[in-house]
User: Fold these one by one.
Assistant:
Number 1:
Amino acid sequence: MYRKVAYLSLMIVLILTLLSGCGTPGLGSNSSSKSDNPITVKLGVLKNVTHAPAFVAIKKGYLQERLGANVKIEVQGFSNGSDFSTAMATGQIDIGYVGPSPVINQYIRSKNIRILSGANNGGAVLVARKGSGVTSVKEMAGKLVAIPTKGSTNEISLRLLLQEQGLQVSADKSGVQLIAMAPADTLTAMKQGQVDAALLPEPWGTQIMNEGIGDIVMDWDQIPPNKGNYPLTIIVSGDGFLKDHRDLAKSVLLANEDAIKFIKDSPDDTYSLVSDELKELTGKGLDAELIKATLSHLHLTMNIDQDALKLMAQVAVDAGYIKGVGAEGLDLAGLYDLSLLKEIQEGK
């Protein structure tokens, strides 16, 4: 009798052990959002209207809904892509929206960052100060032209534009002189006659025009490469986050898809959402008409044009921003992980 009871007790213990093994998994590589343990996702964004899909995904709750109630979202705003890329390389952010050029620079240095998806193509314009004498690209020879930051996607587009017109970047008036300054500072510098022209993300060009400070010399759909249809805002992730939490990375892409659809379907309802998120990031919202003008200058898409990015990367190499490229040339194959995007597009 004693042996029978002991046998039954042992069987019960074994069954309970097996059942416990089928319970809720811990923070594994593809189960983090399903865990009972809370997790924080640190999302980086740039404080530009060209990042509208990110703002809408946050404000409409798409991001929280896709990630799940057990996930806390921390949003960090950046003024430029270089600071964003450094933050991702050092683990301060996990995933986010940024321009491609700083990401390519970071990838060449560390190989620890991946492009997952697109968000927006285009949205930058070339604007010239009234009285500068610049009414075309060729007339920028000998002029001082502003870009948001050195090595930025906007600078790469400007360099391509100058190449097309046979102009050179130089440190003196023999060519086109470049100066890096924040868009808000560029507006002030143009008012004071200190800068002749600038290639800027919207809405800064439209704002400069609306205030009577300058004129748009080349609209967004003429900016190289591909006449404005080039990746300006992409979604990237650090290697560690992508390896440990692929399900969460996919959730961010799904929220991005939700946001793009909302903007396209309900543009009038988008303006306040973008303005409210900008106010949280910068302390100041933006006029609805400026947001409207900007959105009309964006081509929202999750697709990634790898050929355009390779061309832009080569310009960055030629400009000295990307170093360490051997005789075999630029290899960006490992920069991309588009498998999650493919799953979404295939409905998986």
Number 2:
Amino acid sequence: MPVPTALLDLAVDPVVHDVDLRWTMAYAAALGDHNDRYFDTTQPDAVVAHPLFPVCPEWEAIVASRSQSSTIGMTTAEILTGVHATHDITIHRLVRPGDRLTTQLQIVALTNIGPGAKATTRLVTVDADGQPVATTTQDAIYLGVPTDGVHQLDPMPPAVIAGSERTGAPSTFSLDIAAGAAHTYTECARIWNPIHTDRAVALDAGLPDIVLHGTATLAHGVTAVVNARAGGRPELVRRITGRFAAMLAMPSTITINVWPGTPAPDGTTTVPFEVLNAQGDAAVKDGLIVLGAIDG
């Protein structure tokens, strides 16, 4: 069956999470990112979460949307063809331990592209005062499954990022990914998708083996940019974008390339990056991170 137009009317209840220090520290630890900003409890008001941490509370809303998809005529097999293709997150402020976060999900676009139906999801996370924390726009592609003819584009797509060109020589980093990296990330992020931890499920889905989560791969790129271009200051991260392409097997060694940033008139700097798997294929391609002004 095609992906129905009714997907655009999908109703998912807001998801509420209380974020504690154990969760934020575990997320950074799973990435091997030991920045003191994530761990130094001698300065509790300064402790923050990794910039990509919002993917953790967002996950429950995504799971709920998959469950609701079955009520509009999509089979489990069709739902499981959906792959995370792009990620674009605006960081209004970093998550902090003690936050009560509410995440709302909406399907904002549905159209056909070559590989299948492309659905665009927007996730908005706010704090207990209703103030914005993170806004994510991400595409999923239902491989081999078309739409029923609908062609609705995102009415309010994220703004195009200026200064995205790769100029100059990149800084290059190598990182070993352990055999159990996906299992560690699953438990620490509280993001459970069996294709990343259960070999039988991964093989049934047509994968060669379990693979590392796309968000974990992206997070490694974010860490490299924070360290190489933001002076280790995660609070400078304003926006993160990238496309997921090649798979990342475990164990393996990845390569992260971080180009010099391009300053903008508003004081921000756009930093291109990519994450390559052991074969040299881009696991995260066209990566961009917008940094706020580094004021010393």
Number 3:
Amino acid sequence: MKKLLFFAILLLSVSVIQAQTKEELEAQKAEKQAEADAATAEVAAIQAKLDALPGWRKGAFGVIGGSLSGFNNWYAQGAPNNDSGNIGFTLNGFANLIQEKFFWRNSLTTNLNWVKLDNKDIDTDSDNFEPTTDVFNISSLYGRNITKNLAASGLMEYRTTILNNFNDPGYLDVGIGATWTPIENLIVVIHPLNYNFVFADNDAVFESSLGAKIVADYTRQIGAIAFKTNLSAFQSYKTSELSNWTWTNSFSYTLWKMIGVGFDFGLRSNQQEAANFQGVALEDADNDLQSYYTFGLSYKF
């Protein structure tokens, strides 16, 4: 009986010690977590001060997507014996000089994709990777601050394709006006005096003109998430048929170190390009909405 009583007391003592140990460990954990949260807040505050200092801000992120496939005697499809491949990448980069009295913002956006289909049963298909998506845009914005959120500015923006028909068409916007920064990371450019130079072999459709340029850009990094949205629009004073706009969006989520997943999509309206592709007069073109998207692995530079 004494042995049973002693054993029961021993078990109770062990339980009490374990409970006390668990409570102590939880208290220690809470204390360390509070210290870590405080340190994280201090680091964020210091980083905010660093970001506010004059100087260069540089960065880039992109998306890489690709796939390979092969079929042999796969009779359910129209080409039962084929090899196919698809590869593409996007790149969004910026280099911004921010000073007390002026700024100089430079950006690059490109999206290139290739696809290949080798039908083994015929000899007439192409052996090369053919370009499918071809986007290239570079811009440079200079401004002199009038107030904290408003500046007089000048913009140069060039857009074309580089895999096929380089500079045919190519668009160069040069203009002056104002730049508004209502919140951090948001840039709104309004240039009522802008000339849209158009370079193309088809002079019957493509035409340069004077108009207004509007650009809105929001680029931000939040932890593992990086995203950029950009709207670039030109409104011709001559005719709306010479106007155009392009809206691009990029999203990247870092999973491990610098590697993650990313998604890009873009929309465009351009009646001159539609008329050139359809082989009709500018006023007769069916200006359907243009679009593209890319999904794949992302890499942050």
Number 4:
Amino acid sequence: MRPDDWHLTDDVDDFLARAGDFLRSRPGPHVMQLTWAERVRARGAEAFGTGAPVFGVLEQAGEVRGTFYRLPPGGIGLSPLTPAQAGSLAARLAALGHSLPRVSADHGTATAFAEAWQRHTGATPKPGGIRLRLYRLGTLTPPEPMPAGRSRVLGEQDLEHVMFWCGEFAKAVGEDVAIDAGTWAGTRYADKRYTLWETPDGTAVSLAGMNPLIGGQIQVDIVYTPAHLRGRGYAAAVTAEVSRAALAAGARDVVLFADLSNPTSNALYQRLGYRALADWAVYGF
């Protein structure tokens, strides 16, 4: 395994031309590569801050074996890699003088890369605060009975409402992001379709979003219910509605991430028919 087996580019079209079929062959484990490549393609790299993006493709004997992406000044996101593949990437990036604040990938890949990065740079990896599990929908099983109320898809006229809910979600998960009319277009929240669950009197009680269809797959992201309204079935209802909408939109696969420290949400998604696909890890340097 040679470090120069990795082809690096700042051109997202080049990246997708080389790796698109590989990524779409297993869209679940590649959800982050597919999502961020499409965001860069659709909005332009300048939408996500200063510095050119970096995409990488591991090619051996004409076959794609792995990928990564990085949007400076952020961290690096990896497709599933063997320890040898992760080590070759760490060697290549270290030799090029890259400075990485963090790595994000499935647990085995992230751990292998973090260890290799420490060997090559001396940077000490520290596990991130949030541990995630990636789920993929099997057979959707809506809750019975559904809570009283109805779902409502939000449109452009609801933007202020959407920004408020997304801001509350970001605060709840500790995400350091400003969400307002001036920053909205540059956030990861701007390209989703949102659905509210409303009580019979029209009170909004839970929100779920879904990303666009990419590679035959839709990611459900985000799901949020204010703390004082939890335990009443609202999150289950709105997640079921968004999952149903994703299938109706043509998704062959529907995926979502859940915080492993929240057993309630993990159990909820499993009751709806979601099955564990991979544990996810983040290491800071």
